[in-house]
Amino acid sequence: MIGATFEDDEAYPIPFDDRTGRDPNDPALPSTRERIAAFQRSPVGIMQDMYRPKTWRDLDREAIMEKHGGTNIHGMALPPPSQGEPKAWRDVVIGETPADALFNLGLGGTGRLAKGALALGGLFKMADPAEAAPKFARGVPPWLTHPDQWWQGFSSNKLTKPMSEMFSEHVPSPTQVVRERFVSPEWFQGRGAFLPAPGDKAMAGERLVGVGGQRLDVPVELQGGHGFMAAQNPYVWASDQGVISTLAGRSRNLAERYPNVFLPYTGMGGQSVDFSHHMSDTLSEMVKNAQIIKRSKDPERMTAETFDTAMRNPITEGKGEKEKVVYRALEDWPGVLDPNLRQYLADAPGKMRDKFAKVMATTPYQRGGFPNVAEARLAVSDPRLLYDTPLASGISIARVDPNVIGPSGHRTYSTGIGGEYVGGFGQSIPATIMYPDIFKAYAAGKPLSPSQLDYAFRAGKPPFYQEANQEWLDGVMQYLGALRNAR
Q1: How far is Cα 395 from Cα 306, in angstroms, rounded to an integer?
Q2: Which domain holds residue 392?
Q3: Which of 110, 116, 138, 478 could form a disulfide with 443 if both were Cys (CB 3.0 to 4.6 A apart)?
Q4: Does a structural domain hold residue 219?
Q5: Which residue intervals of 362-402 are DSSP H helices?
Q6: Which class for 23: exposed (0-12), middle (13-18), buried (19 or more C-beta within 10 A)?
Q7: Do the bridges between strand 415-423 and strand 393-407 make them parallel or antiparallel, or are there none, so unpaired?
Q8: Which burial class, exposed, middle or buried, applies to 441 when counting CB atoms under 10 A from its CB (0-12, 13-18, 19+)?
Q9: Are residues 305 and 357 both part of a single domain?
Q10: What distances in angstroms separate CA 136 from CA 53, 83, 108, one per listed residue?
Q11: Distance CA 276, CA 413 (A)
């Protein structure tokens, strides 16, 4: 059963505070840029800006990968943490960044949940939320001494320039108005269950008009991402038809036991935007002014010809019997310099847009004059999510109505599911704190590698939901309290 409308509840909604923007009923609604600026000026935003991880320019990443092996998470090749690696490298690999460093404590975890840490693999560390902040507050992350040379999940390679020198220009979207609001975690206690809605980090409610000082001939409409929930849409979430059908089925099952089923936006990796039109549109526009040569006699020089060859052939990984096709061949590929490239990619499957971005992002092409893919990813992404570890959640939450399904209006994700936007916590909550029951169940079973854990979560391996009970609320409030005390 779907519960009563939220307007019937006097405790809802809780207006915006200074961290996240103004009351959505205010006629002078803030734009996405204004909301982001307010967040960046807030204590949480300032702390995130201070604790930025380092770009590992002084490390030979390929040598490290060859030595330690790797695992793939949303296109990021990350070496598994081990005692033989530098402590600083492990700190970055496991996501000990900004607010998440409050609970990702080195390799061991802490408090009563420490035993779950190793079982969950190096990427997700379970810790007592209340104990996390003091330990972090007393230490200085090793990458803090190099604040302008940081590595993030937006690039698997060494950056061609520091992210502080990457710029983009946006204007408010005339077609999508995003109205965010703040709601306290306490409001959810006892009101239902959370069903994670994994999504990319794309911004919503904005039109991208420039990247890296280059004006785009045709702007890019940014539709989200988590902001899709707060936009003036008839639907609260969008994805492919199969994903929405599964989400609706699970929502109906949960609705038999809970008065409300909530969909918290749950962030995927920084490169997950490659699947969407946001990236293919942006890179297609950037190609127009890129220093790409058609062909070269130098076998090491990457050209339009070599790029087109890569797109027209399959990309595989593994050897022998373990070899598998990661990206299929595009036999009708028009060419990277084709004037209709943008429309071709918009009509292509998301996996092919992902291939387009991933090939272009490799070091040889980045050195060969192709568009800066990391800069494009930053341009289309919500800055508030830059430092989140995978699957962090809570910045946008909606109540789902599984009986309303239809065309979403989103240019990448065609099918929408109905419901009502609730609000958000004003920041993301680490996955192990937002979904403690899910991760406890995973920790109790067969040990999973980071990639297996990530896949299990996104695939909805049981248990695939989190009840909004007192234990959940205690963990979230302890985490937020520890975050405030660390400021």
Answers
A1: 41
A2: 6-42+170-270+382-469
A3: 116
A4: yes
A5: 363-367, 373-380
A6: middle
A7: antiparallel
A8: middle
A9: yes
A10: 14, 20, 14
A11: 8
Only one residue has tokens 């794309």, namely 202
In whole angstroms, what is the distance from residue 192 CA to residue 259 CA? Answer: 6
Do residues 359 and 420 share a domain? Answer: no
Domain for residue 133, yes or no? no
Cβ proximity of 187 and 468 under 8 Å: no
Burial class (CB in 10 A: 0-12, 13-18, 19+), 233: buried
Amino acid at 385: L
Q: Note the pTM of the prediction, 2 decimals.
A: 0.72
* Token pair of 197 as six digits: 């809605």
Q: Looking at the structure, tell me whether residues 207 and 350 fall in a common domain.
A: no
d(CA 125, CA 105): 7
- Residues 430 and 474: their CA atoms lie apart, in Å, by 14
Give the Cα separation of 373 and 274 in Å (integer): 9
pLDDT in tens, 314-359: 999 888 888 899 999 999 999 999 999 999 999 999 999 999 999 9
Query: Domains in the chain: how many in total?
Result: 2
Assess whether 388 and 315 both reside in one domain.
no
Q: Angle formed by the axes of helices 304-311 and 350-361, to 10°?
A: 140
Distance from CA of residue 100 to its chain's centroid?
Answer: 14
First-last CA distance in the chain: 42
- Among 427, 475, 437, which Cα is nearest to 128's? 475
pLDDT tens for each residue of 419-435: 999 999 988 999 999 99
Give the Å distances, CA to CA, from 468 to 12, 197, 399, 424.
Answer: 16, 16, 13, 15
Nearest to 5 by CA among 422, 417, 395: 422
User: Is residue 169 classed as helix, strand or coil in its secondary structure?
Assistant: strand
Radius of gyration of the chain (CA): 22
Q: 94 in a domain, yes or no?
A: no
Count Cβ atoms within 10 A of the Cβ of residue 185 and give its class: 0-12 exposed, 13-18 middle, 19 or more buried.
buried
Could you tell me if residue 352 is inside a domain? yes
Task: Identify whether the C-beta of residue 416 lies closer than 8 Å to the C-beta of residue 408.
Answer: yes
What tens digit of pLDDT does each residue of 269-309 get?
888 999 999 999 999 999 999 999 999 988 889 999 999 99
Three-state SS at 67: helix
144 burial level (CB within 10 Å; 0-12, 13-18, 19+): middle
- Residue 205 confidence (pLDDT): 93
Assess contact for 427 and 133: CB atoms under 8 A: no
- Nearest CA among 197, 198, 218 for reference residue 207: 218
pLDDT at 130 over 90: no
Q: Angle, nearest 10°, between helix axes 350-361 and 277-287? A: 50
Q: 260 in helix, strand or coil?
A: coil
Class of residue 174 by CB neighbours under 10 A (exposed 0-12, middle 13-18, buried 19+) = exposed
Please check whether residue 264 is in contact with residue 396, taking contact to mean a CB–CB distance below 8 angstroms.
Answer: yes
